Inverse folding.
């Protein structure tokens, strides 16, 4: 077993014991959906509005769930131990894969909630295109929040700082995914119409994963 | 750099910049006769400046050759011409003309300039507002170059571990932030007179707003970290590099693929930088544009150097205390 897998397994085991990340994320989604339902009773929600709601929920859900990855190590005082046992590379890959899994779980549950609560308006007309942009969006959010949560893990205002740092950096991605989601909700031939968005998402993901992979060691070593 | 500290450089830069700003407002804007006809028919403006060569002149009026529009098109200006006596056949004149729809001819209102060295080409739909092309667009270009420099300094800091690169990265990014803010303000004023509102969340307006947020977060980050100076500088450098990854997306890609009020949006040809590597923008205007970019970049370099020195002194003071 390579060491990044060990880091991933450790994180998943901690998550199974506390269920902090998953329950925080699900609670957040439920509250968001409840607020939307409460404020728009009986209204016809356009695809553009629904895709904006979906990505607002996904972004802030990710900020509550994914920010924990390094902050919890600092709080439990296990960060030094992790530094001793694993090199930066495997810590980064392990945490990234863990965050990605959490993000995909978040995305799937968000889509299920939207399907369930907005039955009348939320119709995905092109499933493959919808899934592709959702996964590409999840990769980007996971990469950015992994590196930035490592960056802020020892700052004074952790909870406030991550969204402030991450939101503007993720904005190109969120703009592209919102557009792609809207198109996948509107037409059944979304792949032809979202090529530009998917290309942006793909290049953003590649650039972010590579840059944060290279830079992680700078943050991690003391 | 030492050159930015010499008074001669500063003096020269100040003079050239003043001349450039003066010329940007002083050079007459001139279009073609077809511009004048189109603007009048669309009800935008009645009197339009036009650049033309004088072909002949008699008691009925004068004949001009259109310099910008269809080559060789001859236009008559009945009546009022003749108040200007010193012209020769072949002179290039900037005239303001009024289009008469019924006779499909032009009335001469005024002779603005004789044999101008350069004229500012009329940009369809902009007219006099097109002069902002020499301020707003170069400022955003310089902002991009500044962010690029800041990122290069951050990388150099991480590689060489020399704190002077950290100060330069800070100074360059601060300069980039300043020029982004200036581009936002000039653009907003331009939008007020061109599109009717100061701000309309056009794709480019959204992306420049996000850019301001990103770099505001960069300056906040340093004060919110509780680390040693060395680690703070490393974290800031990392965030600076990550922030720059988004800059090409925000400045060059996203505004180009979406429908936009700005030129170049939604697959239309961008007037200055585009993939085909060529542009249909007027040669004179392009030269003036790049000269403006160069000058504002020099101003940026001078400011960056100044701020780096301020940071150096502040750190020396903090060490002494």
């Amino acid at each position: 077993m390579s060491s990044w897998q060990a880091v991933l397994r450790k994180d998943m085991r901690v998550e199974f014991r506390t269920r902090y990340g998953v329950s925080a994320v699900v609670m957040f989604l439920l509250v968001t959906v409840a607020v939307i339902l409460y404020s728009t009773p009986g209204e016809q929600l356009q695809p553009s509005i629904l895709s904006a709601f979906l990505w607002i929920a996904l972004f802030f859900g990710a900020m509550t769930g994914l920010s924990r990855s390094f902050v919890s190590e600092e709080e439990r005082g296990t960060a030094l131990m992790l530094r001793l046992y694993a090199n930066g590379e495997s810590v980064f890959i392990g945490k990234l894969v863990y965050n990605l899994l959490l993000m995909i779980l978040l995305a799937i549950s968000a889509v299920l909630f939207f399907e369930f609560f907005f039955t009348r308006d939320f119709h995905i007309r092109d499933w493959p295109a919808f899934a592709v942009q959702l996964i590409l969006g999840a990769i980007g959010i996971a990469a950015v929040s992994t590196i930035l949560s490592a960056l802020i893990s020892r700052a004074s205002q952790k909870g406030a700082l991550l969204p402030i740092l991450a939101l503007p950096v993720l904005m190109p991605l969120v703009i592209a995914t919102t557009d792609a989601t809207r198109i996948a909700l509107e037409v059944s031939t979304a792949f032809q119409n979202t090529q530009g968005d998917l290309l942006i998402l793909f290049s953003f993901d590649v650039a972010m994963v590579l840059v944060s992979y290279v830079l992680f060691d700078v943050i991690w070593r003391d | 750099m030492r050159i930015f500290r010499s008074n001669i450089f500063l003096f020269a830069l100040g003079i050239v910049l003043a001349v450039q700003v003066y010329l940007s407002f002083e050079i007459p804007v001139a279009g073609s006769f077809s511009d004048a006809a189109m603007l009048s028919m669309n009800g935008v403006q009645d009197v339009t400046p036009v650049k033309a060569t004088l072909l002949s002149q008699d008691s009925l009026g004068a004949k001009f050759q259109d310099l910008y529009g269809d080559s060789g098109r001859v236009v008559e200006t009945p009546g009022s011409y003749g108040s200007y006596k010193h012209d020769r056949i072949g002179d290039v004149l900037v005239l303001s003309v009024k289009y008469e729809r019924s006779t499909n001819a032009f009335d001469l209102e005024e002779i603005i300039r004789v044999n101008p060295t350069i004229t500012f080409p009329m940009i369809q739909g902009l007219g006099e507002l097109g002069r902002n092309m020499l301020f707003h667009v170069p400022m955003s270009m310089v902002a991009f170059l500044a962010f690029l420099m800041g990122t290069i300094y951050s990388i150099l800091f991480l590689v060489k571990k020399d704190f002077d690169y950290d100060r330069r990265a800070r100074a360059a990014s601060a300069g980039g932030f300043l020029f982004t803010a200036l581009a936002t303000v000039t653009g907003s004023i331009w939008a007020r007179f061109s599109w009717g509102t100061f701000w309309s969340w056009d794709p480019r307006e959204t992306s420049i707003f996000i850019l301001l947020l990103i770099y505001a977060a960069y300056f906040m980050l340093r004060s919110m970290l509780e680390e040693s100076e060395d680690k703070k500088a490393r974290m800031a450098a990392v965030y600076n590099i990550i922030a720059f990854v988004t800059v090409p997306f925000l400045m060059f890609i996203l505004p180009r693929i979406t429908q936009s009020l700005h030129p170049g949006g939604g697959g239309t040809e961008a007037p200055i930088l585009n993939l085909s590597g060529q542009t249909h923008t007027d040669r004179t205007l392009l030269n003036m544009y790049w000269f403006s970019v160069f000058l504002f970049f020099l101003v940026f370099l001078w400011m960056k150097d100044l701020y780096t020195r301020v940071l150096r002194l502040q750190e020396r003071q903090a060490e002494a205390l």
Q: What stands out?
A: The longest strand of chain B covers residues 47-58. The first helix of chain B runs from residue 7 to 26. The mean pLDDT of chain B is 83.
